[in-house]
Amino acid sequence: xxxxxxxxxxxxxxxxxxxxxxxxxxxxxxxxxxxxxxxxxxxxxxxxxxxxxxxxxxxxxxxxxxxxxxxxxxxxxxxxxxxxxxxxxxxxxxxxxxxxxxxxxxxxxxxxxxxxxxxxxxxxxxxxxxxxxxxxxxxxxxxxxxxxxxxxxxxxxxxxxxxxxxxxxxxxxxxxxxxxxxxxxxxxxxxxxxxxxxxxxxxxxxxxxxxxxxxxxxxxxxxxxxxxxxxxxxxxxxxxxxxxxxxxxxxxxxxxxxxxxxxxxxxxxxxxxxxxxxxxxxxxxxxxxxxxxxxxxxxxxxxxxxxxxxxxxxxxxxxxxxxxxxxxxxxxxxxxxxxxxxxxxxxxxxxxxxxxxxxxxxxxxxxxxxxxxxxxxxxxxxxxxxxxxxxxxxxxxxxxxxxxxxxxxxxxxxxxxxxxxxxxxxxxxxxxxxxxxxxxxxxxxxxxxxxxxxxxxxxxxxxxxxxx
Length: 468
Fold this sequence. Notes:
The protein has 13 helices and 22 strands. It is α/β, with parallel strands linked by helices. It has two domains: 3-221 and 410-467, Metallo-beta-lactamase, Chain A, CATH 3.60.15.10; 226-404, Rossmann fold. A hairpin with a 2-residue loop joins strand 9 (171-179) and strand 10. The termini are close together.
């Protein structure tokens, strides 16, 4: 039996998750994500290093863009197989992909107009990476799979999806490759969630796997205690309210937006913060929130109790869902403090850029980051202390207060990742540390070698390994 894994993304970086598994003629792609760091964005445009038509199946861990964002390109270039994932992931991914395509079309049109006005030349044709029509063609390929159900995805290759506790519908995937009575199990962690998170159930743990691919987004640090998050959020809101400014939160449409609403609804219900208007200014986040309601069996016990007692975090006084552009623009005419949740979470596109333009130069306002900011993104620049940033082609001074709340991460930290791996009762044949910036991945790999003496590698982009 010969198994090969090629690391085509999220290898010593955080986005672009994509791993090709080849076994005796079968080819399965685990995730097909978009690169979101500026340093690696050109890879999105590169041809796939394999004929898309020769991929038997895609296994999708979850619906974040850095895990599913290149599926329209894959289908456009000839993929004809099935995309296996959980039912909510299938629904949410379609929303995410349509939104991404729309943003790319808008950004391309805006950039082309600006380049013509400024008589600038672009290094590549100014066009979207893929179109709305391309994204729509992905939908028929989705094949929903229940948790804990083994499904054959290619000759000699089966997969089982397990709750990752990261975002709604997210999965860890156990891939079993078998031939002539012999088998190997490869465990893809996806993005490992955290215990005791709002709405979600805890991540699944495992007793055995021959090989493990584990993420390392926070492999070199430990999160702030979760219990501090509501109080930290309340403090930021109170300070902003006293200053008379707006609270602007770049939020990922999937999970982070819903978690923020969870905390805000609780703080308002307990009169812990002043009454205020809250805007979920993201059509994508609104649609995803509606999908949450279709799968209450995936909620944790506390969330089910809140729903049963008519305390849904997605319906509370002061909350407004802004779907249209005109509704979004109208927010800027409101006097007094409002809370604005808008995407994208790393400020790489979407409505958040317009809210930054209207608020980032106002000292009374606060820009609050509640999620990971990858290198070379606008969000990383602002949160990292930049005094000036370019937004929509113009330089803006950063005069608003910049705040961060770290404890809300949906990614397990260094100790939580170690605890997750420690449930394995037998030493794996090999561990591959992925989905982390180089420093983080190397740090976590070193910890594993010292702690357990495991065989650990930190693969680079396009590395290929052959598994015995």
